[in-house]
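Subject: Interface between my chains keeps coming out wrong

I've been trying for a while to get a sensible model of this assembly. When I model each chain on its own everything looks fine, but I need the whole thing in one frame so I can look at the contacts. Pasting all components below, labels as-is. Any help appreciated, I'm running out of ideas.
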Amino acid sequence: MTNKKLERSRRCPACGWKFPISKVSAPIDRVDGKTFNCPDCKTALVYRTESGPMYRIFTLMTIPAVTLMFLYRDSALLETIGAFVILPLAIIAAVIWRRSEFIELVK
Ligand SMILES: [Zn+2]
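Reply #2:
Try treating it as a single job with all components included. I did that and got this:
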């Protein structure tokens, strides 16, 4: 087994289709090891991510965070926290998990 580490990519190795960044247009849930067929060429692919747990925690935290923001939307302090803490953290988290995800051919 001399599986050389291929260059990680969100592109289909067969046709170059790119796994979408946005959650709504992704063909599958972003779960590590989940298999799916390329929407363009039907090649069997597997989704990989190294930040799956982080992504799940982050997704779970979104709901209470949004609820809090809604409940205390008149609070200036919370607005500040939201703008200067939660939002930047959300952006960083999004960048990290997107960088650590890739797709490969099913072996
Ligand atoms: Zn393809």
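Reply #3:
Confirming on my end. The longest strand covers residues 44-49.
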